[in-house]
Structures are given as C-alpha cells and as structure tokens.
C-alpha cells in the first residue's frame, strides 16, 4: 500500500474531486430547473382556480337574476 507512488493517489483524488464537482453541478442545475417548473405549475393552477371561482360566481349571479325575473313575472301574473 505504501509502495505505490503518491502520484497515483493524487491523480485518483483529482478524478474523484472533478467527478463530485460535476455531479454537484448537475444536481444543482436539475434542482433549479425542477423548482422553476414547480413554480410555473403552481401559478397555472392558481390562475385556473381563480377562473373556476369566477365562473362559479357568475353562474350564481345568473341564477339569482333568473330567480328574480321569474319571481317578478309570477307576481305580475297574479296581480293581473
């Protein structure tokens, strides 16, 4: 074990260091990309949720107006 030249150990240490740096760099890039995709997805879901909420509110308003109109028609028919 001590017979091997230290140059071989140094070379292996450099190779391992470069490999670890590369893996860390790729993992950080992937993490950032996935985080960006997640943020974009959450924003799209929020927009869709707001649209659905708005549609529901408009439908409720339409139902209320129809109920008011039909109630007025019924009262005017009874009065006549």
Spatial gap, N to C terminus: 112 Å
**What percentage of residues falls in helices of 4 or more residues?**
over 70%
How many helical stretches? 1
Structural class: mainly alpha
Could you tell me the radius of gyration in angstroms? 34 Å
| Total DSSP E strands | 0
Along the chain, the helix and strand elements come as: H
Largest sheet: none
Give the overall pLDDT as a whole number.
Answer: 90
Shape estimate:
rod-shaped
Percent of residues in β-strands: under 5%
Q: In terms of per-residue confidence, which ranges show pLDDT below 50 for 5 or more consecutive residues?
A: none
Structural summary, described in words:
It is a single chain. The chain is mainly alpha-helical. It is 92% helix and 0% strand. The protein has 1 helix and no strands. The radius of gyration is 34 Å and the shape is rod-shaped. The model has no long low-confidence stretch (mean pLDDT 90).
């Amino acid at each position: 074990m001590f017979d091997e030249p230290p140059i071989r150990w140094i070379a292996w240490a450099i190779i391992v260091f470069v490999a670890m740096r590369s893996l860390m760099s790729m993992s950080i890039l992937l993490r950032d990309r996935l985080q960006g995709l997640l943020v974009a997805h959450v924003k799209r879901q929020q927009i869709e949720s707001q649209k659905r909420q708005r549609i529901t509110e408009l439908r409720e308003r339409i139902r209320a107006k129809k109920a008011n109109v039909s109630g007025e028609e019924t009262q005017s028919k009874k009065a006549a």
